[in-house]
Each structure stands twice: as structure tokens, then as C-alpha cells.
Amino acid sequence: SCCFWAAPAVGRAGAHFLVRRESGGVPAAMPWVWMGKGYGKGDGGGGYGKGKGRGKGRLTGAPEQKVWIGNLSEETKWKDLQTFVDEKCAKSTWVEVFGGKNAGTGAVIFKTAEEATAALALLNGAELNGQALVADAWVPKPKEEETPEEGKAAPAEAPPA
User: Fold this and answer.
1) Rounded Cα–Cα distance for residues 110 and 61 (Å)
2) Which residues does residue 7 pair with via DSSP β-bridges, in sequence order?
3) Are 71 and 134 in contact (CB under 8 A)?
4) Tens of pLDDT along 11-41?
5) SS3 call for 121
6) What is the pTM of this model?
7) What's the rounded Cα separation, in Å, for the pair 25 and 12?
8) Taking 90 as the threshold, does the pLDDT of residue 42 lie above it?
9) d(CA 98, CA 107)
């Protein structure tokens, strides 16, 4: 290779120059502006968006299309569950096996609500990796109503007329 990156001795902070070895370290005509770590790779460069791997996940969609799966063994991975569900029921569009405090549970998303309803009956009690699965309809977490914080006055009610 005839070229390498070098920081400029004199110039703008954060600028890098393409330097030619055969020219004795003289900068090439075009300075390249340093854009920060990972610019253009989707991992946070430029400050726009959430970057790589920091999205909401794929469990978005109508709750009628989702099936909650419980009693999964520790060694069950998402691919095992996907293969099992696709063979036993309709083809799934998304499969996730949860870890952490939700270990032993997972979610399967189908294309239609009818496929999800049919899968409930087929998956409930089916055996995967030596465990009888528990399948249930996906119930979204209820949004908590906002209560007035301590120290803040609650909104005043209108006086009776």
C-alpha cells in the first residue's frame, strides 16, 4: 500500500490527511474530515437514529397475531422454537425466546390472527426439548395511568354548579 492515515501537524482539530509514503510524508491534496467513530456504519456515528442494535425489537404489531409461549427449557433457542412452530402450525413471521427475568418464555408472531388462534390449540401441551409447552394469547401490558407526583398539586375539579 502506498498510503496511510496520519494526523496533521497543523490544521483543523479532528481532520486527517491522506499521506503518501514515497513523497516523504507530505499530505495529499485532499484532507479527509474525521467524522467520529463508526461514521456511516449504523453504530451511532453522526448522532442520528438509535444506531445498530438499539431498536425496539420486532415484537411490534397487533396483539391478536402474537402467541405467548411458556415452560421453555433453558437450552431452547429461538431457532429451535421457530422450526418447531413452523412444522406444527403455520409459518411464523417472528420468534423470540426471552432471557433474564423472563427466562423460559417466548413469543411467536404469525401473519394473521386466525393463524395465531389455530396455533394456540396446537402448541398448548406440545412437547419441545422434553418440556410440555404452555401457549396463551398475547396480552399487552396495560399502560399505567399517570398519577400526580408528590409535591405537585392535582388538577382542580370544577366546583359543583
Assistant:
1) 10
2) none
3) yes
4) 555 555 555 555 555 555 555 555 555 555 5
5) helix
6) 0.55
7) 18
8) no
9) 8
